[in-house]
Design a protein that fits this description.
By secondary structure, the protein is α+β, with helices and mostly antiparallel strands. It has one domain: Phage minor tail protein U (Alpha-Beta Plaits, 2-Layer Sandwich), CATH 3.30.70.1700. It is built from 2 helices and 5 strands. A 5-stranded mixed sheet has the order 1-2-3-5-4. β2 and β3 form a beta hairpin. The N and C termini lie close together (about 10 Å).
Length: about 110
């Protein structure tokens, strides 16, 4: 299995806000970023060993409002795309007191 979690965390930490690989149990520090691997599927194998994988990450940008979240979300997008990911989903969740932008990124990665 190809593990990109350390690289994703390192890239997101360059943005300069707190980053956590866990969904918060309570109100997160604002602004902040959480991320998790949503899928990691082998797509090809050579001699019964995975040679490539389709990997998905969700990234949540948390803040007090759109004005705080959007610049950070733009930085997330730049960092993820610089690693070869493409954004496959993006939506605002403004229904609660703490607001968030939900982003999904996908990459086909060779082992």
């Amino acid at each position: 299995m190809i593990n990109l979690k350390p690289q994703v965390r390192d890239a997101l930490e360059l943005i300069g806000v707190p980053v956590s690989p866990e969904y918060p149990d309570d109100v997160p520090e604002l602004p902040s970023i959480t991320f998790y691997e949503a899928g990691n599927q082998d797509t090809r194998a050579v001699d019964d060993v995975a040679s490539s994988a389709l990997i998905e990450f969700y990234v949540h940008v948390w803040g007090t409002g759109v004005e705080q979240i959007e610049p950070i979300a733009q930085d997330v997008d730049k960092q993820m795309k610089s690693m070869g990911f493409w954004r496959t989903f993006g939506a605002d969740d403004l229904s609660q007191e703490v607001k968030r932008k939900i982003l999904r990124y996908t990459i086909m990665k060779e082992a």
